[in-house]
User: Fold these one by one.
Assistant:
Number 1:
Amino acid sequence: MNFPIRLYAILYPNTSLIASQLDPEHFAKHYISGSTRHYDGKMMFVEVDPGFRHPYFRIDEAVAEVVPHEDGRPKATKFISCYRVLEHLDLEAILQLYLTTSEGHCLGLQPGPHESDGHDEATLRVFAEIAPLRMLALARHSFEEFGSYITDPANPKGAPALFYTQLELEVDEFLADFDANPMLLSPIPGLHPSKLRDSILELRSKRSKPLKGISLHSTFEKIPYRIVQGGFMFASGTQNRFFPLPDLHEIENTNYKFWKHM
């Protein structure tokens, strides 16, 4: 049986470019639980145009080795590269983004337009870097501005390309609730609410400071997809590619298993 050969770029929990004969759903299940390599958690990856080529990747050599097993099973994974993958991908070659729960339920997202919410110095937003950086940041930037800032070649603390998202947070509402109840659970799992409050107050007091790291790791393993605001963004300098996340009701109606564990 002939299986089409697909290219997948893993974004979380690690970064790598892989050739495979599995479709996206079977690939996700294999990566999470079907391989001899141990992993227990969520996964995010993209399907890349099979015609994509870049001198950095030895894709043709890898593809030549992707053949079914002797018993007829499709080849699950052929690793092409595990280092500096995202910065060498053409954002336009990304066909679809897949979010996967730790149970292996998969949701595919198509690219779409992003309507900017504009720049507002007084508005603070929380951004979770996912690949290749992993910081959690509080910033004055809009969603697009954050990606441009991090991937600006003049930024010594940035990266050439970035995959990230914005998390839901009503800053004033959180401050009021935390002031009234210091035992309040953090709106962002893995981040102590007092550290979040202190970071908000610091950034508000220093108007010249554009952003502040609030966690050394975005702990995306602990962050539910439910608190993602709007969707996911790829950025590389002045280029970006957005993958909107449908509203929860639509996900519940079209992909109940994913919705139940998201």
Number 2:
Amino acid sequence: MSTTTDTDVAPATVRAIVAGHGSFATGIISAVDQITGRGSSFLAMSNSGLCLDDIQGTLARAVDDTGARVIFTDLPAGSCTMAVRRMIRARPGVLLVTGINLSLLLDFAMQDAVDPVVAVNAALERGRASMAVYGG
């Protein structure tokens, strides 16, 4: 598992960036790594202590450094999502997936040689299907 709050050099195996509040990204990537051993497929980024412009700049450098074409964020209206939405206007081909959960990230991690668009769509379907309510 890799983490960054600046321009850390990431391993070439990074397929996606996970960004969110506090230690959300490192936590969910840790869970993926514990279950699949594929946590190194992701680069974690926290928005802690960063303004919107700093988040956008950090994410842009992370995309450039890793070649990742997918960015996962925690909240649809959170600062990481807003920064990515601004950044991808000038970066066609970079996908944003927001409101993620562990099932979604696990599914993405297990799809090795799949086109990012196909992998994201399959993972999104898995993530949505994993949510349930019992009792009541």
Number 3:
Amino acid sequence: MKLLFLVCTLLISLSHAVLLAGTETPQVFEPQVAGTFYSSNEKVLESQISGFFKNVPNQETKGKPIALISPHAGYQYSGQVAAHGFQLIQNQGFTRVIILAPYHGKSGKRFRGVSILKAKHFKTPLGLIPVDQEVCIQLLHTPATFTYPSTKREYNLIGSYKGAYEGEHSLEMQLPFLQMSLGNFKLVPIIIGLLEGEDFDTIANILKPFMNNKTLVIASSDFTHFGQAFNYIPFKDNVKENIEKLDYGAFAKILIKDFEGLKNYRASTGFNACGIFPIALLLKILPEDTIGEVLNYDTSGRQTKNYIHSVSYASILFTKPSSPKNGQYSPPNKTGISLR
């Protein structure tokens, strides 16, 4: 067991050696899942996303949008849910988007901390998105470390690991929607690896100064992954109802920004949202007066009428209350919860 621990520590340490490797910044990072998770044809992709937007009913926000939790499955499964969130960020003046996306381990190397994409542009079938070089360079030069008890050595929490982005879909799936919703904007791409203990506060405090009225933050995540394929079968009866109950139990913690509550909920239920780290980090970043609301929810089980395997999708919007007009009474919201 001790040997296994040492090997794991060494592997993660080696990953950090790669994470911090300095290379010249490439001009373009090519799309990784165009043609599989979504269409690689520009016109087909535009038509598909436009169709999703047309199916979203009229929505009103309770304030200024500042953050989204958005799904990242293939568009045929989660695109309609995602459209509910992206429709509400249109015409809000956003010029920068920070995406917090989970690492699914496609390159096979786990890492602790966060990885900033080292590229000048991220390409999709809809064109090039400029990566915000100023912010990314500042992040890469900000001191943030953790220490392994076994070695007493310090390692950086923020680095640039190309392997974090190779074959990864969780960040890329947000981009065509953003291109259709915002037009021109700068991207701060962040893939989240393992985070422990104080890591969340350390990284959240580094990111907070970059949030302003023109910056949107997106946490990319799907929710419950049910079935043998995901090694998660916490119940065998009333699967549809129990999956929904499980997801909404997590939503209740997320909407009130209860970081510890979400952590305990995961420990007690085994709740296996793949983007649990990006979501938890987002909860640490959001201002106190932020209001969350679930815009839309669905499951692949409902869509396929087969709950042997099912993945859940939700679009969750966070807004800051609009400033009341002079002389207008604005009663306090004691719970901060809003469920549509």
